[in-house]
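Appendix B.2, paired examples.
Example (i):
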Amino acid sequence: QFDPADEDIHTAVERRLTEIVGAVGGKLHTGRSRNDQVATDFRLWLLGACDQVQAMLADLQQALIASAEANLNLPMPGYTHLQHAQPVTWGHWILSYFWPLVRDRERLGQVRQRTAVLPLGSAALAGTAFPVDRQALAEALGFVAVGQNSLDGVSDRDFAADFLYTATMIGLHLSRLS
């Protein structure tokens, strides 16, 4: 929770960490800078968001499958341009909402892969002189890779744009259900 007394997000993170782990939280900046910390925090938050959206889409897909199975061969009109076009079944129609979600979940998985690259150890932009075991940090924090270029590590936001595109596609697909 952000406290108005916090100078910025960086002090909020340090304050909260100190509340959780005690005085050692004040050593947060050892071998790091605000640049790689905020880049890491952003990636961690987005990884969590990817997982939450994946779970919600999986639940929706299960509901669509259940509806299709319950009414598999129920005939209904298919429409084009708001006009009756061809007869279809409920199962066929309801699963037309399932398949775009498959693609959306694949995209989310790809976004997650690109997001799960650890920037810690990049410091402000040119790395750190402290012996930071970046691989151990990556494993402890659930990242699948370690960034290969420190400047890219603190400046990259491609993963965020990828998530926004994917979220937009999900929104478009869900809007068809309304």
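Example (ii):
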Amino acid sequence: MHSTNTLLAVTVLATAAAAQGQAYEPPGLVTMETLAERPHLATNSRALDIIRFWRDAGPALWFAKDDAFDRRFRERFLFDHESAARGEYAQWQSTPEGALALILLLDQFPRNAFRGTPRMYDTDAMARKIANTAFAAGYDRSLEKELRKFFVLPLGHSEDLADQERAVALARRIAPDDLAHAEHHRDIVRRFGRFPHRNSILQRASTKEEIDYLATGGYTG
């Protein structure tokens, strides 16, 4: 059985070959190290660095509050986040891997690097736009299963109910293990029209219902 490392490498090589009008035939075992040896075939080496870093971190760190990981993520990719936020990496959207890397930079990175500050949410709209474009192009089908969920999360982070409903539908199809989480987010936005736990960060006034919700163990992010 191929590792997820191998499958991503094969996807990248096949995508690059197709872009050059060539058929791709796997030359035996292909890994991310193969891509490092063939930079002309890689979709984008920096995008692949971001994906590799995120995959190596794994689920144990993806959604944890870990100061050391946050610091490492920020130090390594702050320049890339800021470049992506300025639209300088827009060309990455032309491949599934590039689109995923952009979403990681614009949706996940701020939640680690700028935790607890308004800047956490500054590039959410950009990430949602890229996610919608990626789904329209079928990019989610080109990536390994465990990473597909990150195309859904920008919609699940939205305070727009239509985005939340779409996130639930997409999670049901491509990330069923995360369906309950998506439904919980949707239900919060359906009830309050927003995420109450963001109010203090964004200096928004909370309603009494929101205050009571948070005080009794409501979702705090």
